[in-house]
Amino acid sequence: MRYTIAVLVLLAACSKAAPTAPVPPPPPTGIDPTVLVVNDANQGMSLTWWAQSGLMKHDSIIAGTKGCFVFFSASPTDSVRFMVVLGDSTKPGAQWSWSPWFDPKTGLIPSIDSASAKVNYPYGAEWWIVRTTGNYTFLMTTDSTAPCTP
């Protein structure tokens, strides 16, 4: 009888699954900036992205067209910025502008204080619209929602 009880106790102990560690959540994904470029000028534009990881991407927007561009970071902490050029960058008269560095963890600009960021970038720096305002000028503005879907 004692052996039967001992066997039953062992069977009961062994039948319980061993505790396992909880499965960790997937790593957070970074926010990848999106830019809508509307080129109504009579000359081409270019959009070049850089990331602190060393990634780079270059896109062209021909005259009279628009495009939706997303830069995919190497990691959730890979800060990104972009540059827009209207016209031939090798000739005088081309117009240039740069975005600030963008923090993909928050969608904000880490290099300026929060009061300045609120005034200059009220929606953060995740979504941008670049629109020509003539044949030789353009505006870069942030937007409160995704301006396009690639």
Describe the structure.
The chain is built from two helices and eight strands; from the N terminus they run αββββββαββ. With 150 residues, it is α+β, with helices and mostly antiparallel strands. The protein has a single domain, classed as Immunoglobulin-like (Sandwich). A four-stranded mixed sheet has the order 4-1-7-8, with no helix packed on it. Strands 3-2-5-6 form a four-stranded antiparallel sheet, with no helix packed on it. The mean pLDDT is 81.
The count of β-strands is 8
Under the CATH scheme, the architecture is Sandwich
Largest sheet: 4 strands, mixed
Strand percent estimate: 25-35%
Question: How are the strands of the biggest sheet laid out side by side?
Answer: 4-1-7-8
Q: How far apart are the termini?
A: 74 Å
Radius of gyration: 26 Å
Helical fraction equals: 10-25%
SSE string, helices as H and strands as E: HEEEEEEHEE
| Helical stretch tally | 2
According to CATH, what is the class?
A: Mainly Beta
* Low-confidence regions: none
Give the overall shape, derived from the CA principal axes.
globular
Mean pLDDT: 81
Structural class: alpha+beta
Classify the fold: give the CATH topology.
Immunoglobulin-like
Q: What are the defining features of this structure?
A:
150 residues, alpha+beta, Immunoglobulin-like, four-stranded mixed sheet, four-stranded antiparallel sheet, 2 helices
Compose a concise summary of this entry.
The chain is globular. The protein has 150 residues and is of the alpha+beta class.
